[in-house]
C-alpha cells in the first residue's frame, strides 16, 4: 500500500529515509537486496526518476551498493553509518523543536530533563 | 532533465476559435522518455494543445516538430508514433471493445496484445461489450488500456481518469509506472487530479488562459514556493523580496503565499513558514485576482 508522503520534504528524501528506517529496524539486513527502482516506483506510484534519486543518494553515502546486473544491496556497516548520520541530526531535528515548545509552555530545562529521565510524572 | 534532443517540440503555437484565443505562443520541449503532467483549469487550453500536437486540428501560427520533422509537412510521423486518447471519444460506438482493440493493433506497430489482455484483467474490462454500452468510467478504462497497449513513442492522454473511482485511479497510476519502466517513452497527460498524480510526473506543465506559466519538476516548483504568516507589518517586510501569489489577513495577522526562493532554513523570529502542496500552489497560480480574495 502506498504510504502517505508528507509535504515537509521532497519525495526522494522520504524514499531514502524509509529505506534507512527499514535497515535500522532490520527489516532489510546488511548485504540483503533492496527492491529495484522500478519495483519501488510502481509500489509507491512515483516516477522512476524520483525513486532512483532516493536510491542514488544512499549509494553516494555508502549505505547501498550496486552489484552489476543483479541489483542494489545494503552495505556492511550500513546500520552504524545511518546511526551516526542521524545522531548528528538529532539535536536540530528533535531537541530544538522540543525546547521551542517547552519555551512556549513556560517549562524550564529542568522540568524537561525530569520528564526525559522519567522522574517528571508529577508535572502532568 | 537533460537537454538532449527532444522527441517532440512546439514552437509559438497559437489557436483561436472565433474571438476566443484558446492558446497563445506555446513553446514546449518534450524528452523521449518522460511523463509530463499538463495542468490547467477548465478552458485553459490543455485539450486544444493536445489536439494540435496530435494533428487533430491545426494551429493558426507556430509549428510542432516530432522527431525533428514539422508535422504538417510530415503527417505520417505523427500517425506512426503518436497515440492520442482524447477525452471526447470518436470511436464507432457500434463496435465491440474487442474489435476496436483489433483495429488499434493494426494502427500501432508496437501494439502489445499481451499488455492489452493483462490490463483488461486488472481493470475487469469486458471486451465483448459494445463501446457505446460502456459506462463513463469504463470508457476511460478502455482508453487507458488502448493507450498503454499501443506502446506508441508518444502517448497523449486527455483526462485519463475521468469518471474513475479511487481504486481504478490508483491502478492506473501503478500500471502507468510499470508500463513506463518496462518501455520508457513519452507520456503527456492532462488531469484535474493534481495532488494524486503529481508524484508520477517528471515535469509539470501549468497552463493558464492559453499560456504556459510554469514548466518544471514538481519538486522544483515546490522548493521555490511556501507560505509565511505572522504580524502583518513583519510579513509585508519579509515578502517584499518575493513574488506574492496570494494573501489573507485575519485581525493583525497575515498569511501570504510567495514564490521566488527556498524557505529560510534557519527560520525567523515572529514568522511561521509552511510548505505548500502542489494543488495549493496551482490554485494560487491560476485563480484570477478577483477570485483570489475569497481564496484562503
What does this structure look like?
The complex is a heterodimer of chains A (124) and B (296). Chain A has five helices and two strands. With 124 residues, chain A is mostly helical. The longest helix of chain A is centred in the last third of the chain and has 27 residues. Chain A is elongated. The N and C termini of chain A lie far apart (38 Å). The mean pLDDT of chain A is 90. Chain B is of the alpha/beta class. Chain B has eleven helices and 14 strands. In chain B, helix 4 runs antiparallel to helix 5. The C terminus of chain B is likely disordered. The chains are: A mainly alpha (124), B alpha/beta (296). The interface between A and B is medium-sized, with 18 and 19 residues.
Mean residue pLDDT of chain B? 92
Percent strand of chain B: 25-35%
Number of strands of chain A: 2
Write down the secondary-structure element order of chain B.
EEEHEEHEHHHEHEHEEHEHEEEHH
Low-confidence stretches of chain B: 292-296
Strand order, sheet with most strands of chain B:
6-7-8-3-9-10
Put simply, the count of helices of chain A is 5
The proportion of residues in beta strands of chain A is 5-15%
The biggest beta sheet of chain A is recorded as:
2 strands, antiparallel
What is the terminal separation of chain A in angstroms?
A: 38 Å
| Oligomeric description of these chains | heterodimer
Amino acid at each position: 500500500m502506498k504510504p502517505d508522503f508528507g509535504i515537509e520534504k521532497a519525495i526522494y528524501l522520504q524514499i531514502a529515509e524509509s529505506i534507512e528506517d527499514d535497515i535500522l529496524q532490520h527489516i532489510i539486513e546488511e548485504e540483503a537486496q533492496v527492491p529495484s527502482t522500478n519495483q519501488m516506483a510502481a509500489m509507491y506510484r512515483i516516477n522512476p526518476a524520483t525513486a532512483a534519486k532516493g536510491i542514488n543518494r544512499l549509494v553516494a553515502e555508502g549505505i547501498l551498493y550496486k552489484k552489476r546486473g543483479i541489483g542494489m544491496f545494503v552495505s556492511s556497516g550500513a546500520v552504524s553509518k545511518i546511526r551516526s548520520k542521524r545522531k548528528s541530526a538529532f539535536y536540530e531535528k528533535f531537541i530544538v523543536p522540543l525546547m521551542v515548545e517547552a519555551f512556549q509552555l513556560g517549562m524550564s530545562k529542568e522540568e524537561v530533563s525530569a520528564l526525559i529521565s522519567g522522574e517528571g510524572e508529577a508535572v502532568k | 532533465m537533460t537537454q538532449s534532443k527532444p522527441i517532440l517540440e512546439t514552437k509559438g503555437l497559437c489557436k483561436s476559435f472565433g474571438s476566443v484565443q484558446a492558446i497563445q505562443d506555446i513553446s514546449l520541449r518534450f524528452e523521449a522518455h518522460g511523463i509530463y503532467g499538463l495542468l490547467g483549469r477548465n478552458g485553459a487550453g490543455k485539450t486544444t494543445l493536445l489536439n494540435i500536437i496530435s494533428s487533430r486540428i491545426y494551429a493558426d501560427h507556430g509549428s510542432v516538430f516530432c522527431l525533428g520533422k514539422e508535422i504538417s509537412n510530415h503527417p505520417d510521423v505523427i500517425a506512426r508514433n503518436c497515440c492520442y486518447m482524447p477525452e471526447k471519444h470518436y470511436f464507432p460506438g457500434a463496435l465491440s471493445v474487442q474489435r476496436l482493440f483489433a483495429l488499434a493493433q493494426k494502427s500501432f506497430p508496437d501494439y502489445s496484445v499481451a499488455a492489452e489482455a493483462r490490463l483488461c484483467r486488472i481493470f475487469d474490462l469486458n471486451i465483448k461489450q459494445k463501446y457505446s454500452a460502456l459506462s463513463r468510467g469504463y470508457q476511460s478504462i478502455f482508453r487507458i488500456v488502448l493507450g498503454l497497449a499501443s506502446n506508441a513513442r508518444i502517448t497523449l492522454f486527455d483526462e485519463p481518469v475521468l469518471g474513475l473511482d479511487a481504486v481504478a485511479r490508483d491502478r492506473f497510476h501503478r500500471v502507468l509506472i510499470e508500463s513506463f519502466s518496462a518501455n520508457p517513452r513519452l507520456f503527456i497527460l492532462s488531469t484535474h487530479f493534481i495532488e494524486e498524480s503529481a508524484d508520477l510526473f517528471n515535469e509539470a506543465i501549468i497552463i493558464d488562459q492559453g499560456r504556459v506559466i510554469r514548466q518544471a519538476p514538481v519538486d522544483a516548483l515546490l522548493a521555490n514556493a511556501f507560505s509565511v504568516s505572522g504580524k502583518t507589518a513583519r510579513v509585508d517586510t519579509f515578502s517584499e523580496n518575493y513574488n506574492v501569489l496570494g494573501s489573507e489577513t485575519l485581525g493583525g495577522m497575515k498569511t501570504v503565499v510567495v514564490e521566488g526562493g527556498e524557505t529560510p532554513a534557519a527560520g525567523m523570529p515572529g514568522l511561521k513558514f509552511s510548505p505548500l502542496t502542489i494543488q495549493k500552489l496551482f490554485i494560487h497560480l491560476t485563480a484570477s485576482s478577483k477570485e483570489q480574495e475569497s481564496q484562503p
